[in-house]
Inverse folding.
């Protein structure tokens, strides 16, 4: 009986992968990873040059990504069928050999692997190797502390409704907004209403080739990539009081 080993690969720069993930990726004979149709895939890109010459690759291509609304019945049905099918395929392969599943960032942190994990955990031995989450790579790129003292940090998804984004932005010190891409204009309006726009940073492709850092107020945001995060740094409540 083989295992499924899901390797968190960190935020994008291969140097930020753990020693354990590096070892598993290089030793792998069977490697699976998610990707959009027609793309190499971000997780696969991170391990470029590290895979064995005779490795078997299993690109798991999403049937849809942004073509239809992520909360529509069609999207939910198509994605559920896709995860069911790949769970079965990986289970069959892992009956005989170990399969390494690649995952950018940390797999347990909004990773697509969780859909496979939920379907396979009672059937197959699964090991998950921690990775540095994308947001940690992004705030390191900005080079300022994200939270300190008694700061409350809130992690939001750009897919949330604008009024909910605004409410949560008002009630937090430090902010991380993920899934920014197509939602950037909404995120920007919510930050402005919450009085936080002037403090916000946009990090595109953090730690990857083509990384871009900008103050959100200076960006028009019409062309924001999927790998983008908005950050608002906390100021350190207790520390401000002590100064
Ligand atoms: C489905 S979540 C996956 C998160 C991942 N498991 C992690 O630990 O970071 C994808 C979102 O993470 C964010 N993200 C992850 N890595 C990033 C990076 N290097 N630069 C910018 N955004 C990133 C983006 O907001 C993207 O839309």
């Amino acid at each position: 009986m083989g295992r499924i080993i899901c390797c968190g690969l960190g935020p994008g720069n291969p140097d930020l992968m753990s020693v354990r993930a590096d070892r598993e990726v290089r030793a792998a004979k069977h490697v699976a990873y998610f990707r959009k149709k027609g793309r190499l895939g971000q997780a696969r890109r991170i391990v470029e040059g590290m895979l064995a010459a005779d490795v078997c690759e299993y690109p798991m291509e999403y049937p849809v990504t942004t073509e239809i609304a992520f909360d529509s019945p069609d999207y939910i049905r198509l994605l559920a069928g896709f995860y069911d099918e790949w769970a079965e395929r990986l289970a069959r392969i892992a009956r005989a050999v170990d399969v390494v599943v690649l995952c950018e960032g940390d797999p347990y942190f909004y990773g697509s692997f969780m859909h496979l994990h939920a379907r396979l955990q009672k059937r197959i031995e699964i090991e998950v190797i921690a990775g540095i989450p994308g947001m940690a790579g992004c705030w390191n790129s900005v080079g300022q502390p994200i939270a300190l003292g008694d700061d409350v940090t809130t992690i939001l998804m750009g897919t949330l409704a604008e009024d909910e984004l605004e409410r949560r932005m008002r009630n937090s010190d430090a902010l991380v907004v993920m899934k920014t891409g197509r939602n950037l204009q909404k995120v920007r309006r919510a930050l402005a209403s919450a009085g936080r726009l002037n403090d916000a940073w946009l990090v595109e492709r953090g730690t990857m080739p083509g990384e871009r850092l900008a103050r959100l107020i200076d960006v028009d945001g019409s062309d924001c990539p999927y790998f983008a995060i908005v950050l608002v740094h906390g100021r350190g409540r207790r520390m401000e009081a002590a100064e």
